[in-house]
Amino acid sequence: MDDKVLYQKVFTVNRGDFDKAGEVSTQIKSILKSLGVNNDIIRRVAIASFEAEMNVVIHSFGGTIDFTLTSDDIKLVVKDSGPGIEDIELAMQEGYSTAPDEMREMGFGAGMGLPNIKKNSDKFDIKSKIGIGTTLEIIIHHNKK
Question: How much is the pTM?
């Protein structure tokens, strides 16, 4: 089947911008709703995009979320510049967090971000280089045949 691009947009996420944190995932959710995507799929995308967005706000120097809706899949490519992740396997464990105390005091940094993203994805890939940044590729199928 031809996987046709139906919608694409790149969003910017700024470091430490808690006033706007969550806006990208809210916009993505609204776009999917307006296009008639199934509510269960929207929920999974909203969770994955929110967790990824918060990771960029909390842990990086800023980045982007490239959102693509095709006839079969929803793809999020999250790229940040920043410190990178030293131990991806450790970072994928529920409860592990490198969030500073000030972030934890605001209710963030419970160590559930990456595990929640993976749990809500049909395909999840993470690449990180120390001193360069991290890239997540998240794919959620919405048109199973």
Answer: 0.90
